[in-house]
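User: quick one, fold this
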Amino acid sequence: MIYDQIQSGLGTKDDRSLPLGLLKGPVGPAIMMESLLGQVGGRVVATLYCGWGTYGSNPAEVAGKLVAMCHKISPDVVMCGPAFDYAEYAEMACRVAADIESAGKAHALAAVSQENAETIDRYKDRVLIVKAPKKGGTGLNDALRSMCLIARALTEGTDMAQLKRRACF
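Assistant:
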């Protein structure tokens, strides 16, 4: 999992300078996902996090470090988000997921809300972007379930055309 300062539980919107870090196991929304992941044979091995300001100060360098951290952990799939309607987090989630996917060592996906239309348009041809609700909106459980189903399909290499049409932008 890759989270911002809010979803990691380590800060608020104002704690933008939270440095890169790693926590073993699930935190934040990943705790809600544990039973869903278990249903598809998955588990969270680590949660990486970074503040929006830390990422925004040098996106290429921070994305590169997050990708390298993921490679050291060696997961099957990296889930970035849900970023809800936080524009800066959505940009970070989609960029990092696209970079991980293009590196070819692990699969990745991002989850953002439709309010991030510009970011979605910029990345939807490079990485799978799961539809998530805006903060406080309805549909979070469906988005988390879709993230888990897509992760399983990515690891198994199964056809996910129908799932992508229903769950992704």
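User: anything notable?
Assistant: The radius of gyration is 14 Å.
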